[in-house]
Amino acid sequence: MRIDLHVHSRFSPDSLMELETLARRCVDTGLDCIALTDHNTIEGALELRRLAPFPVIVGEEIKSAGGEIIGLFLQEEIPRGLPPLETVRLIKEQGGLVSVPHPFDHFRRSVIERDVLMEILPYVDVIEAFNARNTLQRDNRAAESLAQQHGILTTSVTDSHTPVEVGRCFVDVPAFDMTPAGLLEGLARGAQTRRQMLPLIHVATTLTKTRKRLAGLMQRG
Which pLDDT score is estimated for 18? Predict the structure, then answer.
């Protein structure tokens, strides 16, 4: 199975990708399973799970008080702004997995703080050793090195916000039973495909965020 554990849709403030478009792109690019990890919501993931012709892991990229943390296999949405350890606790209470997105990226403002990363590290299940949107490859190498030092499983992700990104990175894992334990076992035996996006992709994300913000202001006005 080809899987990507970090994907966004229009339910994120910085993406316009419709769920139908995302599902079609996954099929067209040969993805067999994704985690939809919209910012601070699982609404899109729950809807995609109903309509997609492939398995969908319900995820959420949560902006904790100390930076972003991803929860996978969630049943309920986790509020933003909580202390990092509280965020991790709520993920684990649902039987979910804790994944750390782009932990050393120099350019994203919501990246997890270094001291917070070390604080939650004992509870982390997965680290993104390759995020296609990281501008500096040394940031990906630092994440992979950290995972190796602490014996933590890794993944390669697109962090897709647009259709063109979908399918560029994935982990090829043995078919698993769509449980957290099954995913971890698969990642331990997986082969990762990595293709970096051009930094210009962040311009598109910024423009999308601005467009959505202005649309919201006009609706309220």
Answer: 98
